[in-house]
Input
Amino acid sequence: MKRIFTVGVFDILHIGHLLLFKNARNLGDYLIVAIQESDFVKKYKPQAKLIYNTDERIFMVKSITYVNEVITYKDVDEIIKEVNFDVFAIGPDQNHSGFQSAIDWCKKNGKDVVILPRTEGVSSSTLREYLKDK
Output
């Protein structure tokens, strides 16, 4: 069984997230999604204003057909060492130092890294702006 692993905040779920999960799952047989704990989101996104708490985000992501398992994490460069997976699927915008360390760890430990494309024109930030204007 080929296990795929991806991580994120997933606060305002949108079509881009669903396509990420679908495309990641298509890389293997079992998709593990790690949701960053609310207290740690601000470490990398100090301006973040979360709508949903960690448990609510877990519930939403667990409800998605493509997802087999949901866990939480604090730092990506730490959780990467704790999960049993074959492929680390990430988006092109996941590039801060924690992700760079996680990618380096994958390369040293025989794990594949696949960068999945973004869904153009869709992001949590654009949705927030749209809703703010309404």
Q: What stands out?
A: The beta strands are 3-8, 30-36, 69-73, 87-90, 112-115. Residues 93 and 118 are 8 Å apart (CA to CA). The first strand starts at residue 3 and ends at 8. DSSP finds six helices and five strands in the chain.
